[in-house]
């Protein structure tokens, strides 16, 4: 009945098809007559102005009053997720911010960071690294405080003048020794330290032994 009231035969369509906004394909209207721009998620729709079915959208009349059009929405049987008031389809990838990327999955969403979460250890040329927000850039970056570096260099120079026999000409920094690699007998313990002539971070090793290994039985010679 609606088709008979709204659809004219034969079809009368404009010679030039409409120019659609990005993401809205050309489709046949509800009469199957003329090419129109498919309505997108959240846009108004009715019998003639159809939704983009390739995106799984249907015209939802559940919240519309009698005699008015509906709104393009996902089908009820299709799972999706809602983030910040926006609904995403199952499997759709989106970025709530420039720092994370998320994927809609099983009614929820999984996110991964897009900024590197690396850790910068202190070095002689950068003893006080810190992460700061750079204007115009999304991800924070590591910078060195020139003032702290200059103060450290002055302190090192003063210490060198007061004690010419200083073993390490830089501020000592290192991790604790790791547990012994062997449960019995000789093994190795490691640490990261800058206590060397170049004052550069390096991995150091030393021998260690928790307990002596038990003697083998006489039937099994060493």
TrEMBL record:
Q: List the SMART domains hit by this protein, alphabetically.
A: IB (SM00121), TSP1 (SM00209), VWC (SM00214)
Q: Mind listing the GO molecular function terms for this protein?
A: heparin binding; integrin binding
Q: Note the superkingdom of the native organism.
A: Eukaryota
Q: Which Gene3D superfamilies match?
A: Thrombospondin type-1 (TSP1) repeat
| InterPro entries the record matches | CCN, Growth_fac_rcpt_cys_sf, IGFBP-like, Insulin_GF-bd_Cys-rich_CS, TSP1_CCN, TSP1_rpt, TSP1_rpt_sf, VWF_dom
Q: Name one GO biological process term.
A: cell adhesion
Record domain VWFC: where = 79-145
Task: List where in the cell it is found.
Answer: Secreted
Instruction: Fetch the Pfam families from UniProt.
Output: IGFBP, TSP1_CCN, VWC
Which residue ranges does the record assign to the IGFBP N-terminal domain? 1-75
Question: GO cellular-component terms in the record?
Answer: extracellular matrix; extracellular space
Keywords, ordered alphabetically: Disulfide bond, Secreted, Signal
Q: Which PANTHER family match?
A: CCN FAMILY MEMBER 5, CONNECTIVE TISSUE GROWTH FACTOR-RELATED
The similarity comment for this entry is: Belongs to the CCN family.
Q: What is this protein called?
A: WISP2 protein
């Amino acid at each position: 009945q609606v088709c008979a009231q709204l659809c004219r035969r034969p079809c009368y369509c404009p010679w030039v098809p409409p120019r659609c906004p990005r993401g809205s394909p050309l489709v046949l209207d509800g009469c199957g007559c003329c090419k129109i721009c498919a309505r997108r998620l959240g846009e108004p729709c009715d019998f003639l102005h159809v939704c983009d079915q390739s995106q799984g959208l249907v015209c939802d009349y559940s919240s519309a009053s009698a005699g008015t059009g509906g709104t393009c929405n996902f089908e009820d049987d299709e799972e999706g997720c809602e983030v910040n008031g926006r609904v995403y389809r199952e499997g759709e990838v989106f970025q709530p911010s420039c720092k994370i990327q998320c994927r809609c999955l099983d009614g929820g969403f999984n996110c991964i960071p897009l900024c590197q979460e690396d850790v910068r250890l202190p070095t002689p040329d950068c003893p006080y690294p810190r992460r700061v927000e750079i204007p115009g850039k999304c991800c924070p970056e590591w910078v060195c405080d020139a003032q702290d570096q200059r103060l450290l260099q002055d302190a090192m120079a003063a210490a060198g003048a007061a004690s010419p026999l200083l073993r390490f000409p830089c501020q000592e920094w290192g991790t604790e020794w790791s547990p012994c690699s062997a449960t019995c007998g000789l093994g190795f313990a490691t640490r990261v330290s800058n206590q060397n002539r170049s004052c550069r971070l390096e991995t150091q090793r030393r021998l260690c032994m928790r307990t002596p290994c038990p003697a083998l039985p006489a039937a099994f010679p060493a």
